[in-house]
Amino acid sequence: MNPPEMSLVVLISGSGSNLQAIIDATQNGSIPARISAVICNKEDAFGLTRAANAGLVTEVISHKEYDSREQFDKALQAKIDQFSPDAVILAGFMRILTPEFVKHYSGRMLNIHPSLLPKYRGLNTHQRAIEANDHEHGVTVHFVTEELDGGPNVLQARVPISSNETPESLAAKILVQEHQIYPRAIKWFAQGRLKMNQHQAMLDQEILSESGKQHVDGDFE
Ligand code: GRF
Fold first, then answer.
1. Is 113 a catalytic residue?
2. What contacts 166, CB < 8 A, 6 or more positions away?
3. Average pLDDT for 57-83
4. What are the phi and psi torsion angles at 157 (to 5°)?
5. Pocket flag, ligand 1, residue 138 (CB < 6 Å)
6. How far is the CA of 168 from the centre of ligand 1 (A)?
7. How far is the CA of 16 from the centre of ligand 1 (A)?
8. Is the distance from CB of 115 to CB of 139 less than 8 angstroms?
9. Closest residue by Cα to residue 60 from 69, 113, 72, 68
10. Among 36, 128, 155, 219, which residue's CB has the most CB atoms within a 10 Å radius?
11. Residue 8 to residue 186: CA distance in whole angstroms
């Protein structure tokens, strides 16, 4: 008998193109999990429309209605836990999280960040990579720990930076990769193959390198 399907809660703030890739992968069976809820901190985010179109439960919790980061994170945590998720998936959720919140989901919260972590934590990563004259840029799926964009890397995809690259053109190339690697990493988690152990990411019981596994186009195993 197969183990029961995992439950995911996805947190978003914006367009939700990564959410869409995850929805598609749960619907076509490549991620063996169900999305129990999509929670957003902005009521006009397009990702909410995507979730509703897929028939998913949506919730909005606006950070503007709370006096402090701590209070917002407490309310968010209470809302998430109503759905008893096995994993919390940050998909363009543009909030810095409190240590208490992060600890509560330790080992079961993933994020996608548009850079080759540990390079370029934080914002404006495409611009920074171009200004530094880097030849390549990329995107990383990682476990979330208390250190911003600093948790153990799981999976990375790389793209070349061409001579006439703009932050916009680079962002578009990176998004194509995001939509491949996030469903792939979530699939591993849902299959029980991906775990965090003492601040290290492990896939199939092997410790992943500091950069994480390197994604090759079209590889979805
Ligand atoms: C992506 O670039 C992701 O890496 C970053 O925020 C963006 C979200 O895009 N964390 P979308 O809302 O999934 O389209």
1. yes
2. 130
3. 97
4. -125, 140
5. no
6. 13
7. 7
8. yes
9. 72
10. 155
11. 9
